[in-house]
Amino acid sequence: MQKNNNYDDQYALITGTNDNVGSSGDLKDFFILIGWVILIVVVFLASFQSIANYMIDRMSIENLQKIESLFNSKIPPPVEDKYKKRIDNLYEIQRKIIQLDPKIQYRDRLPIGVAENKKINAWIYPNGSIYITQGLLDENMNEQEMAFVLAHEMGHYSNRDNLKAISKQLAIISLGLMTGRNKQTAVVVKNVANIESIKYSKTQEKDADLYAGKMLYKLYGTNQGGIDAMKRIKEKENYPEFLQYISDHPRTSSRIYLLEQQQKSMQ
Predict the structure, then answer these.
(1) pTM, whole model, 2 decimals?
(2) Helices and strands in the chain, H and E counts
């Protein structure tokens, strides 16, 4: 009996009271858990977004307009006289683009407003209102360059990205609620969701660029205005290009290359 007890004591020293053995197992379990969390988040987001996109793409125009009306508080205010002529010109270009795209012909126009912001930027709200910053307008881009900027935002509208962005946020919020009060899990879920969101947004931006390039071809016979606009934007960038890897937009150099390849394919 004593001999057996000694063996038991020795085994306990090796396993039960050995901190390294326990830590190794805990660490392995931790990484397995993280792996499962990441897998669940990716699958959930992909599934949720696929179902939501399917429904949004097939939504009737009547229901689409009902949803858009919920965001009518974002209708732009009157444009300052300083920019009025340029905005009026954009409305004329917009009218032509609407005529070329059957998917958005139910709209007479998409309101265009000017945002008091010195950055070079433009965006579209869920109700179809397009905002262009003062900084972009002050660049004095030519007609084809501005047509590309406008057509890019209209491309988001045609693809219904303005509504798909809402479903994406709902998916992320749902994941946050599912994690409850577990802070470690919540951090992992948030980071993975952000990465997936960035990847999806970059795909939308690429599609909007191609849409805009296509519209420029129909209007002017070339997409050179898009290439020139992106080159102008690249010259104004004052941060390292590698930071664009974590942006929700593709790298500007990649967008230029995409439009150049589109140009070659159209010739």
Answers:
(1) 0.77
(2) 10, 3
